[in-house]
Amino acid sequence: MSASAAVRARAARIVAEVAERGRSLDALLAAEATANKQERGLLRTLCYDSIRWYVRLDALLARLLSRPNQTLEPEIRALTIVGLCQLIYTDIPAHAAVAETVAATRLLNQPRASGFVNAILRRCQREHEQLLAKIDRDLAVRTAHPRWLVEKLRKDWGDQANEILDANNQRPPFWIRVNRLRVTPANYRDQLQAKQIGVTAGMYQDTALLLDRAMDVSELPGFDEGWVSVQDAAAQLAGHLLDPQPGERILDACAAPGGKTGHLFELSPELAALTAVDVSPERLTRVTQNLQRLGVSAQVLAADAAEPATWWDGKPFDRILLDVPCSATGVIRRHPDIKLLRRSDDIGALAKRQSQLLRTAWSLLQPGGRLLYASCSALQAETGDVIAQFLRDEPSARDATGERLAALPSLARELAPGTRAPAHGLRIAAGAAGMDGFYYALLEKSRGPSAATQRPDVS
């Protein structure tokens, strides 16, 4: 049996785990041991593209079945999806895609399914154009998104929703963040050019660079020495908006994996203290590794930011970064399994958790301090609605997002295409200026008597 057939069998198992059992695609791929770089690349491509287009491919499969609503074994359904994906979305020669996918049935211990898989893929070769034209009349199917998400995006974004849906299906761009403490952006561009790595765009005075291709971090000059980090330009905006200053006490709540934590130090290396909190001890390992690579240190705590009585020393913070857990619907192009794993019912519970975290974090903030609410959700319920309700309930809070952007006119110009200034905060649409979808609201705490920092209620 060929190695190519084995890769397709592994891809089918992973796709089935995601689609049928709700497993994380990234976690499954991280656990895979593959023989060589070529096989790893093929496996990732097949898995990511099959999941990215699963909704559309599954609708196509339904049209190709000889009997409506025919029941298929999960791994055979997944293998057939992987086969269809190769025919529709890759440049793999059709004869190789069909032959290797059919051969994979034996590796899945389902040799009797070989005839079925062969028939489906052969029919797809003959009829896919006509069948796709029929199923693509449905926007949710054409863009391979769950219907509930399409409806919410159209409600929240209007006509711009179609652009977001299309952007979600693009392969993610490869942004890096240059550490000015170690190297100048101009010098780093020279380092990239020497390695024949192209730069297609730059933001934030070239500290954010968009490379012409994705690559392993080992290929990036000076990565191990902390010259550069991999981070989307939308995520890099957090540090610029929060604007940490020397001598301040900073809290990075929900800090993992630590990209924003390290950026805060790069922007202001003379902080008095930085505390990074995350509920996941496993994910905090990444925070520590990132800080060590950058040559900086912080107090890293495995704790729930919503329960400060278990970790807070009672000293208020000057600035707080609150990157809330969310539906991650703004970063679907990086995590296409969100389309299959997330449910409409999840959004209300997430919004409730976000509001709880915001109220608690506010109680830890010094009067006159600033809190940056950050969310990679594209949905109003997790972003503007949370902030609007908080501002109604909390008289000591005001929205300072517009004021901060006004102080950074060059940054505001870079963000202009595809971004929106809603009633509160800033919304970035997925794909705008090559960025991921993101939401930010910079809130300032008044210095009046009502704003005195209080210990949170932990009863």
Q: Which characteristics define this entry?
A:
13 strands, globular, alpha/beta, Alpha-Beta Plaits, single chain, N-utilizing Substance Protein B Homolog, Chain A, 459 residues, Rossmann fold
How would you describe this structure to a colleague?
- It is a single chain.
- The protein is of the alpha/beta class and 459 residues long.
- The chain has three domains: 3-143, N-utilizing Substance Protein B Homolog, Chain A, CATH 1.10.940.10; 174-230, Alpha-Beta Plaits; 233-451, Rossmann fold, CATH 3.40.50.150.
- Helices cover 47% and strands 14% of the residues.
- It has 19 helices and 13 strands.
- It has helices at residues 3-21, 25-30, 37-52, 54-64, 74-89, 94-107, 114-135, 139-142, 147-157, 161-168, 185-194, 233-242, 259-267, 281-294, 338-341, 346-362, 384-393, 401-406, 409-415; strands at 174-178, 199-203, 208-211, 228-230, 249-253, 273-278, 299-302, 317-323, 365-375, 397-399, 419-420, 426-428, 438-445.
- The strands form two sheets. Strands 5, 6, 7, 8, 9, 10, 11, 12 and 13 form a nine-stranded mixed sheet that branches. The chain has a four-stranded antiparallel sheet with strand order 2-3-1-4, with helices on one face.
- Strand 6, helix 14 (281-294) and strand 7 form a beta-alpha-beta unit.
- Helix 9 (147-157) crosses helix 10 (161-168).
- The mean pLDDT is 93.
